[in-house]
Amino acid sequence: MWQTWLIRLSFIVGIIIIFYGTWIYFASDKSDKWDLIKSTADHFAALAKVDNILPLPNDFVQDNAGTLVVQKTEFFIPLADLIDIEKEKQRLEKEILRLEGIEKGLKAKLINKNFVDKAPEAVVNKEREKLANVQENLLKVGTNYNKLK
Questions:
Q1: Please, what is the angle between helix 85-111 and helix 2-18, to 10°?
Q2: Which residues pair with 67 in a beta bridge?
Q3: Which residues pair with 53 in a beta bridge?
Q4: CA distance 137 to 128
Q5: Residue 75: beta bridge partners?
Q6: Which residue, among 63, 56, 94, 95, has the nearest Cα to 79 in the 3D structure?
Q7: What's the confidence (pLDDT) of residue 21?
C-alpha cells in the first residue's frame, strides 16, 4: 500500500517540476501500473494540473517531449515548441548524475564482501533489486537525454 502512495507522490512531484503542457502520456510494460494511474487519474490530473493522462499512442514521437521516470515507468509530456530544450537537458543531466551516484553507492555496497556475507539474504536481494531499478531508470533517462541532442 505504501508503495502505491510513493508512486503517486513521486509522479505528482515530478510532473509539477517539469510540467509545461496539458496532456501526459504514460508508458509501462506493466498493465497494473496503468490500472493504478487510470483508477486515480482524476486525482493525478487535479494535483498535476493536467487535462488528461493517457496511454502512450503507438505513433507518439518522443523527441522534444518532457519526460519523467518513476519506478521504471515513463511519463511523457508533449511540449512541442513550449519546452526550453537547454533547460530540459540540464534537468536530465542532473537526474543522470543523481542516478549515477545512487548506482555507485549500491554497487559499492554489493561488492563489499562483509555486507554480502553478513547481511540477511533478503536485504542483499533488495539492494540488488534497487540497483537493477536504478540502472533501468538511468538507461531510460539517458535515452531521453540523447533524444534532445
A1: 150
A2: 76
A3: 24
A4: 14
A5: 26, 68
A6: 63
A7: 43
Q: How far apart are CA 70 and CA 6, in angstroms?
A: 10
- What residues contact residue 4 under an 8 Å CB cut-off, 6+ apart? 36
As to burial, measured by CB atoms within 10 angstroms (0-12 exposed, 13-18 middle, 19+ buried), residue 84 is exposed
The H-or-E segment that residue 89 falls in is helix 85-111
Of the candidates 1, 16, 80, the one whose C-alpha atom is nearest the C-alpha of residue 49 is 16
Looking at per-residue pLDDT, the higher value among 84 and 14 belongs to 84
pLDDT-derived band of residue 60, with 50, 70 and 90 as boundaries? confident
Cell of 95: 537526474
Q: Are 102 and 135 in contact (CB under 8 A)?
A: no
In contact, 43 and 5? CB cutoff 8 Å: no
